[in-house]
Amino acid sequence: MDRGVRWLAGGIGLVALILTALFLIPFSPSMPEAGLDASWRYALNEVVAEGRVFGQEVIFTFGPLASVVTGTFHPATDTMMMVGSALYAAGFCIAFALLAHPRRHAFAIFLPFAICLVSPNCGFL
After folding, report:
1. Which pTM was predicted?
2. Which one of 19, 57, 92, 116 is least enclosed by Cβ atoms within 10 Å?
3. Cα–Cα distance between 14 and 32 in angstroms, integer?
4. Which backbone phi and psi does 92 adopt, to 5 degrees?
């Protein structure tokens, strides 16, 4: 493969990985609002902030990392949400980087589209 084509394919892969990280990390999280759907999101953040024990004091399908999935802002869980989302994004990026290595770096261009299909936090949905 020509050296220029390899650089182009690697650049496309790198841009795709960066876009995926930007899609998954909630830099502008949703704020708590009125209504049934938003109330459980805020309640789970409040439970984590109070230090309650999931499985004993709180029974719900999400655990203490619910803010990573929901993207709802709470001052006590904001750092946990950002770090958890960054780890989540890193996992996806590493998986697709391994899938695209060594000669299929351009395959990583599908990663942002795959994330948009499965992630409720994606900016396109």
Report:
1. 0.71
2. 57
3. 34
4. -65, -45
